[in-house]
Design a protein that fits this description.
Blueprint lengths: L8 E6 L2 H11 L11 E5 L5 E6 L19 E5 L3 H13 L4 E7 L5 E6 L5 E5 L18
Parallel strand pairs: 1-3, 4-7
Antiparallel strand pairs: 2-3, 5-6, 6-7
């Protein structure tokens, strides 16, 4: 039997590295790199390797790339408290980033919100799950 593959790396294709670095630094990701780089690699505290590549650099390693940024993936970020979800969402939207989902008490027991990075990737902000706050059936989350 073969060992299954392990997800250990995430590549994010970006149109403007400087704007992307600003966004993820504001979220709290420690990025120690220059804004004008075409490729930045960051190893997160949980061991996941996140790489940012400019649209000019992607064809150097991905010949099948169709020229798009953003997409249908939500990058999940855990924050330490329900209050921090609201505060971080406010910080990001006040800084000019689009709020895709305002903070709300989600049916699975967490406080949850989503902001968009400059390329349209969604960053989910989630508090720890509180079992006492779970409910069913889910209700519609608030809209902007």
């Amino acid at each position: 039997m073969h060992e299954p593959p392990t997800l250990n790396q995430l590549n994010i294709i970006v149109a403007d590295m400087s704007k992307t670095v600003d966004f993820y630094r504001r979220l709290g990701v420690a990025i120690d790199a220059e804004h004008d780089a075409h490729h930045i690699a960051v190893t997160l505290s949980n061991g996941l390797l996140v790489e940012f590549d400019t649209t000019a650099f992607v064809p150097k390693w991905h010949t099948g790339w169709k020229g798009r940024t953003g997409g249908g993936v939500v990058l999940g970020f855990t924050v330490p408290s329900r209050e921090r979800v609201d505060a971080l969402y406010d910080e990001m939207t006040t800084a000019g980033y689009r709020g895709a989902q305002p903070p709300y008490d989600a049916f699975w027991g967490a406080r949850y919100a989503i902001v968009e990075d400059p390329d349209g990737n969604h960053a989910g902000l989630m508090s720890p799950i509180d079992r006492d706050r779970k409910f069913w059936p889910p209700s519609e989350p608030p809209t902007n």
